[in-house]
């Protein structure tokens, strides 16, 4: 089978017959249901202030990997879009470039991967700041949810202003960061704290078996802060 790519069309040649598959950008509806403003951030995508009840829609190209959406809290930006956020700050920019600073609850995804699947997860590997739902808009795969009162219950060693750090951020050792490669670390009391409260979410970097999920390629999604 020969594979030819013509953006945004994929053409497959099989036994002399052409099969045409049209791929579209995935839509992400990002909604703030918190009682306070959230400065939503997306990589790729940028950033925007969302007051309570507001929604921001972004389109993400097929094939995008290592992407994430998160919320920032207690931000102050000037007219040029420069400033600072207490959690999730991305280099002092309203329009994010790159990733945010811990602690921040993450919706992570890779689109149109092998076997026509999207890979999706909620991650607490960078800690927790805002409760989150990450789910398909029209069903077809699992709704992911992390809405426990983690900030209130955060262990003293991990407490941060307006958030709860992951232990890797605090201690920076392989035990918590898994920097020495696959199989180099396992669950800890700190990771169990997160996992018990948010079973759907990554609680440490090698938590794949219970935290990485798939949806059919072409799915559209919603991310809800304070669901």
Automatic annotation (TrEMBL):
Keywords: Signal. SMART domains: THN (SM00205). SUPFAM superfamilies: Osmotin, thaumatin-like protein. Pfam families: Thaumatin. The keyword Signal applies. It comes from the Eukaryota. This is Pathogenesis-related protein R major form. The lineage of its organism: Eukaryota, Viridiplantae, Streptophyta, Embryophyta, Tracheophyta. The gene is LOC107005806.
């Amino acid at each position: 089978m020969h594979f030819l790519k013509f953006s945004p069309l994929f053409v497959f040649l099989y036994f002399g017959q052409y099969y045409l598959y049209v791929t579209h950008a995935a839509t992400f509806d990002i909604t703030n249901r918190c009682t306070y403003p959230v400065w939503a951030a997306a990589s790729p995508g940028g950033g925007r202030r969302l007051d309570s009840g507001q929604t921001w829609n972004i389109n993400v190209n097929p094939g995008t990997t290592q992407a994430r959406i998160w919320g920032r809290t207690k931000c102050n930006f000037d007219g040029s879009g420069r400033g600072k956020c207490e959690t999730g700050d991305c280099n002092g920019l309203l329009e994010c470039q790159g990733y945010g600073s811990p602690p921040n609850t993450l919706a992570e995804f890779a689109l149109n991967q092998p076997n026509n699947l999207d890979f999706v997860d909620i991650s607490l590997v960078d800690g927790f700041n805002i409760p989150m739902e990450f789910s398909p808009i029209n069903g077809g795969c699992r709704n992911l949810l992390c809405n426990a009162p983690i900030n209130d219950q955060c262990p003293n060693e991990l407490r941060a202003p307006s958030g709860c750090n992951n232990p890797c951020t605090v201690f920076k050792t392989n035990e918590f960061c898994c920097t020495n490669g696959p199989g180099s670390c396992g669950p800890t009391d700190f990771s169990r704290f997160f996992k018990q409260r948010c079973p759907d979410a990554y609680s440490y970097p090698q938590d794949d078996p219970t935290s990485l999920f798939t949806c059919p390629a072409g799915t559209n999604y919603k991310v809800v802060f304070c669901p």
